[in-house]
Here is the input.
Amino acid sequence: MYYYLIVALQAFCIYHAYKNHKPYYWYFLIFFIPVIGSIIYIITQVYNKNDADKIQDEITSIINPTKKIRDLEKKIAFSDTYANRMELAEAYVQNKDIPNAIVNYKKTLEDTVQDDLYARQQLIVCYFQIKDYVKVVEHAEAIKDKTEFKGSEQQFFYGLALKELGKVEQAEVQLKQIDRPYSNYNERLELAKFYIENNRVDEGKALLEQIYAESQNMTKPNRRIYRNTIVEVERLLKTL
Here is the structure.
C-alpha cells in the first residue's frame, strides 16, 4: 500500500512539474529521492492551505481515476450546471475517454448564457483526436474570428483537418499562421511536411533548415522537450 502511495505522490509531482514548466532538476529530485524529494517539491512549489483539497483530489484521481468521474456524475445528477458539466468533461479528457468528454462539452453549448469559446476549443481538440475532421472544421469555423483562436493549437488542428479533407489551399492559410520563429516547433515541422507533400520541396527544406538552425540555440531543457522533433527534422533534411 505504501509503495502505491509513494508512486502516486511521485506521479503527481512530476505531472505538476511538467505542467508548470519547472526546472529539470526537480525531476531528478522527485525520481531519485522519492519521498523526501516529493515532499520538498510540494512544500516549496505546490502547497498552500487553499490548495490542500486540490492536491488530495489529484492524488486520488491518479490512484483511482474513475472515482472522480463517478463523484462528478452524482454532482450533476443533483445539480446539472454549466460548471459541473464542464468539470465532468475535463475529467473524461484526463481519463482519455474522449467520446464521453465530447458528449459533455456539447451539452454545455446548450447554455446560451455562457460564452461557447472554451467548449468549442476543447471540442476541436477532442474531435481531432478521434479523427473526425468534419467536426473539427465545424467547431473551428464557429470561433475562427476570435482573437484567442489566432496562432492557437486549435487553429493548427483546423489546418490539419482541412488538409485531411482535401482543402489544401485553405489548410495552408491556417497552417502558415502557426509559423513563428523560435516557437511552435512541432507545428512548423508539420507545415514543412505539408509543403513537401504538395511538391513544394524548396519551401519545405527552407523551413526545416530554419528549425534546425534554431534548435542549435535551444536551452538544454528545450532540447530534451523537442528532441523527437529535432531528430525528425534532421532525418528529413538528409532525404532532401
